[in-house]
Write a structure and sequence with these properties.
This protein is of the alpha/beta class. It contains 15 helices and nine strands. The mean pLDDT is 89.
């Protein structure tokens, strides 16, 4: 399978969640890595409650793609509908139950990292969930725990949550200047950072208009502006490097980032991404141009 090929190629960090393909993501990972658990680092999440409509949209998302393409003028309605179906439950009972179901799907008795998914500002200011996560770690159900915030503002609040091990957040070529301060503070607190949406939901890897962002972005103005900014990145590409590889190298340049959660939809993309880790890092002139043009 693609998962096994990624492991054979040197990938050992796998990020998932109960809501990814209605649990199918966890099941695939669990099936692929039976007998290889000690070779992989698995992160999952807890806290999101799917509604019947949301679960249906997740499970049948592939069937909605043609609709999304045919009706471009109203294409933002589908992702907005899906987003509106998200609910959260950070009670101890729900978090424990969610973890147990994830462990069963993953065919393992522990998680390397458990993340609180889509936290609210209230949950970060008054983090009652911490006690639950500490107990799960004490019981050997998880080895580390953290938070997967939706925004940089929330990520800054995460820095004040006691005993946190990991923060997963959006980091890319387009991250604003506040990210530098955040990463410095996280390093001072010895908090591990996992970068996600490194390829801007596929926009930095797919120029055909079929990226995840093209299909599911709720903010069409953000999509237009981001594509305009991407056109300024020609200086990062050439015969030896694609734009997607440059985006991954940018993350490698950030010493405070432990790893990146990068999705891929084909073996071609997997091989392209893995090759990036054998290429030279971005040079100082390129990093300066990124800061000047994009930030």
């Amino acid at each position: 399978t693609t998962l096994l090929e990624s492991l054979d190629s040197g990938v050992n960090f796998y990020d998932t969640a109960p809501g990814y393909s209605s649990g199918e993501s966890e099941r695939l990972i669990g099936e692929a890595f039976k007998g290889k658990r000690d070779q992989v680092i698995i992160t999952s999440k807890a806290g999101v409650v799917g509604t019947p409509v949301g679960r249906f949209a997740k499970r049948h998302k592939h069937l909605l793609r043609p609709v999304n393409v045919l009706f471009r003028p109203i294409q933002s309605l589908l992702p907005r509908l899906y987003q509106s179906q998200k609910r959260v439950d950070f009670s101890s009972d729900y978090l424990v139950s969610s973890l147990e179901k994830s462990l069963a799907r993953l065919k393992t008795d522990y998680l390397d990292v458990l993340l609180l998914h889509h936290p609210t500002p209230e949950s970060l200011l008054h983090p009652a969930f911490c006690d639950t996560f500490r107990e799960l770690r004490k019981a050997g159900k998880i080895r580390h725990w953290g938070i997967s915030p939706d925004t940089l503002e929330q990520a800054l609040l995460c820095l004040e949550v006691p005993d946190i091990d990991v923060i997963q957040l959006d980091i890319s070529l387009f991250s604003d200047r506040r990210m530098d301060s955040f990463l410095k503070q996280a390093a001072e607190k010895n908090i591990g950072i996992v970068a996600r949406k490194v390829l801007e939901q596929g926009l930095l890897a797919d120029t055909t208009g079929q990226s995840k962002a093209d299909r599911w972005a709720t903010d069409r103005e953000w999509l237009k502006v981001t594509k305009d900014r991407i056109r300024q990145l020609d200086f990062l590409t050439g015969a030896e490097r694609t734009l997607a590889q440059a985006a991954l190298l940018y993350i490698r340049n950030l010493e405070q980032v432990a790893t990146a959660a990068v999705g891929y939809s084909s073996l071609e993309h997997l091989h392209e991404d893995i090759l990036a880790y054998s290429l030279p890092l971005l040079n100082e002139d390129e990093l300066t141009n990124i800061r000047t043009l994009l930030r």
